[in-house]
User: Fold this.
Amino acid sequence: MITDIPTSDEFSSAAYAQFDFAWDIVISFLTTLDEAGQYAEVDNDDKAQFWEAARQRILTSLIIAQQGIELAIKGKLVNVSPFLLIAGSPSDWPKDKTGTGIAYSEFRTIDAQDLIKVYNTVHDKPFDQKFADLFEQVRRLRNQAMHSVNAGLKISAKEVIMIILEAHEHLFPDQSWVLARKEFLFNAPAAQVYFGNDFIDGMLVREFCTVFDLLTKTEGERFFNVTAGVRKYICPECKRHAEEIDGPIPRYAVLDPNKPTSTIIRCFVCNEGHLVSRTPCIHPGCRGNVISEEYDRCCTCGESQ
Ligand SMILES: [Zn+2]
Ligand SMILES: [Zn+2]
Assistant:
């Protein structure tokens, strides 16, 4: 008998934990650099030295992200049958020496390089080829990072961010990464020792300001559903949270729909629609006419009305 058979949900939450950890590492570098730029002049030489110092840690985050992808695929296979993951011929399987069964974890599992093949064989809808290519690319990079000390092997923070966003999009298409990240921040160790969790919403805003600026307009539309090529407004709720931590100005909300008469702006971070009146801003020099009803603030210049 095989005991302690893992469930698909256990694999999924383990996958999420890896994505979160990998994200945590790279995002902390990106926000640190952004913040440093607010207080001092950071030139290109400084940036190059910063990223060189972060190189090994970013490689580590890639290794962790790859493990997350692997665990997520395993979870999907376990959904079909947990025994799909067991590798080798029965003659190589561990023996039940005590008569109480053999723990699932004692079996050797199939190699990462076979995961896509197995998935595509047992599911009626195979993985998108783009995902198969991404998986292969990340697996190779991970192997290089794990098994060599190649000083030339460089992976940028953006590449790791993109790997996580793309993999998450393919593996958990119905789930929002922003929401998952918010839950992680609220459950993080730091959140357990501070009174009140106000600073966490601010941290989320800071993270996604940084990520939103890092992505191209098309990537922003793809991953966060923020229409490319339309005017971006300050989200009044995110602005309030950002102020709690002296964070950046969150200019990533869009009119929904994008019409001169629209009275709602939608924000991908707080995941809310905010009512706005279409009256001119009272501040001279600001030509905005999108005023938050709830916060009585101009969403163009950010000033109170
Ligand atoms: Zn918001
Ligand atoms: Zn204004």
About this structure: The chain has a mean pLDDT of 94. The first strand starts at residue 2 and ends at 3. The CA atoms of residues 8 and 75 lie 4 Å apart.
